[in-house]
Amino acid sequence: MKPIIAVVGGSSCSASEAQLAEELGRRLSEAGAVVICGGLTGVMEAVAKGVRGAGGLVIGILPGNDAREANAHIDVALATGMGETRNALIVRAAGAVVAVGGGHGTLSEVALALRIGTPVAGLQDRFAGAVEMPRLESPAAAAAWAIAQASR
Amino acid sequence: MKPIIAVVGGSSCSASEAQLAEELGRRLSEAGAVVICGGLTGVMEAVAKGVRGAGGLVIGILPGNDAREANAHIDVALATGMGETRNALIVRAAGAVVAVGGGHGTLSEVALALRIGTPVAGLQDRFAGAVEMPRLESPAAAAAWAIAQASR
Amino acid sequence: MKPIIAVVGGSSCSASEAQLAEELGRRLSEAGAVVICGGLTGVMEAVAKGVRGAGGLVIGILPGNDAREANAHIDVALATGMGETRNALIVRAAGAVVAVGGGHGTLSEVALALRIGTPVAGLQDRFAGAVEMPRLESPAAAAAWAIAQASR
Amino acid sequence: MKPIIAVVGGSSCSASEAQLAEELGRRLSEAGAVVICGGLTGVMEAVAKGVRGAGGLVIGILPGNDAREANAHIDVALATGMGETRNALIVRAAGAVVAVGGGHGTLSEVALALRIGTPVAGLQDRFAGAVEMPRLESPAAAAAWAIAQASR
Asked: Is the distance from CB of B150 to CB of B3 less than 8 angstroms?
């Protein structure tokens, strides 16, 4: 089976975070990973765009009941109807997690990953003072790290 | 986005149920659907085999924490760590549900689908006295019904 | 710890079902059980009324995000924000389950209980043709059965 | 209905954190709150002890399937079988959350509370550099704050 990598980040993000997320999605796809994310806007949309541009597969795990809430780049939108409780599903299902930028929802995902033992790293994440985890320099480095972790 | 169809059924099943599920998986894939299932054995394995044989995409939504519990035909194994509570996720995420054979777990999925309004039908299901829902004659009819429902 | 008994049933119910549920709540409380239910109307409200009338403790496990959706007799309203996925939580948390009347949601709870091994019985339930389980004659018999099961 | 206050913190904790949690449990009970927690050891056990000592009600929302995993002071142990995904249930169900000490699991709860809008504050929590939230000086102050928030 292909490795499953979660990319998490804010539903609103800066232009440079979007660029990082899009490149990360592209590189993960080129390396053969399936990408999962929260399926909405911001970093979730940028990474999905990158995956789709590279011909990869991106699955959105949505908080609401309606798959049509997914952004336009999501291949498979799984509506959970569980609200933010779905954050735990994302990090549980992933073989590794990369956080780009991020707010409180993203921090909850990073903390849950650390708690349950899913490898997690930051790519220009906003949690420098909050949690210790590897910080990767570039989308290329993050993709390589994530795939290596998920394949262990 | 492609329609998402859930195929649900027992983790052990008869040879004829396995045959029905496998053909259903094949026909759903040929018609362009993404198939989701519980990812384990029995009907879940047979439908996944059918999807894979047709070059389609099949996602397993697993009860446990370990994606390696998925059967060998699953493309993307999403470990939920939620136990049987994941049954609700399967019918929530689907645009339509088809039940093949089935025991108590399957009955819970059929009942939840009826409760939340996800269209659900039976293909040689075992719930004749239990619930009213459409019964389809063949895998071909079930695939056509499911895709029509999920596209509404 | 006190035994935890779930009483499940429709959000709308007949007057006689309400009467059964209320007496069941009363008898469970008198026997020292904590009662859990879905927290809304119909059977859930009637059983809560019975518990409160007897000075017992009744906990409502709600589908939505707002605890104020609970009926007026609930002591502790736990909002889950998980929709009908919360049905699984009710039968997972209970030491035994009694179904009174009931529609599709209740059937999903009965089927899940049978699937995961939580003892479940019917008290004038509507699933005679659907599932095999003990049927109790009266609220007194159902309360005695449930408490015996949950204490094993 | 009584206000529901969640007290969250590590499954192992220092003696002074245990003392704070126990006093917090006592004061919350004296003020009429129902206390919910994760039901296990450390801060969860200390707060439960405080509640019980004051004659209050404390509910444990457990990660596993077995209610007997609860610590000895829990009144009502609700087994969820959802693993760490249950963290989201705790902060969703609460009218306010107080974090004492804490590790990654607690940080996930604090972050989720901030994300979904459940008022959350720290009492000698370990997240000074991680998140902005009110910090209370004492168990008495924390209890008063939490009850005021949950009553709004």
From this structure: yes
Contacts of C139 (CB under 8 A, 6+ apart): C20, C23, C24, C26, C27, C123
Residue C61: φ, ψ to 5°:
-105, 100
Establish how many alpha carbons lie within 13 A of residue C69's alpha carbon, considering only the half-sphere containing its beta carbon: 17
Check pLDDT > 90 for residue A20. Answer: yes
Backbone dihedral angles phi then psi of residue C111, each to the nearest 5 degrees: -65, -40
Q: Which of B8, B64, B66, B10 is nearest to B36 (CA)?
A: B8
Residues 6+ apart with CB under 8 A from C25: C7, C35, C46, C47, C48, C49, C50, C51, C52, C53, C54, C56, C58
From the list D4, D79, D92, the residue facing C93 with the nearest CB is D79
Confidence at residue A152, expressed as pLDDT on a 0 to 100 scale: 79
CA distance A82 to A70: 15
Cβ pair C84:B116 closer than 8 A:
yes
Among D residues 108-127, those touching chain A with beta carbons less than 8 Å apart: 108, 111-112, 114-116, 127
Residues 128-147 of B with CB under 8 A from A: none
Helices (H), C4-138: 15-30, 43-53, 86-93, 104-116
Whole-prediction pTM: 0.97
Joined together, the tokens standing for residue A104 give: 């409180």
What tokens were used for C34? 């904590």
- pLDDT tens profile D13-63: 999 999 999 999 999 999 999 999 999 999 999 999 999 999 999 999 999
Closest by alpha carbon to D87, among D54, D66, D61?
A: D61
Residue B2 backbone phi and psi in degrees, to 5: -70, 145
Which residues face B5 on adjacent strands? B35, B96
Distance of CA D62 to the CA centre of its chain: 13
Judge whether residue D122 has pLDDT over 90. yes
Per-chain mean pLDDT for chain D: 97
- CB atoms under 10 Å from CB of D100, counted, come to 31
Q: Which stretch of DSSP H or E encloses residue A69? A: none
Q: Alpha-carbon distance C29 to D42, whole Å?
A: 31
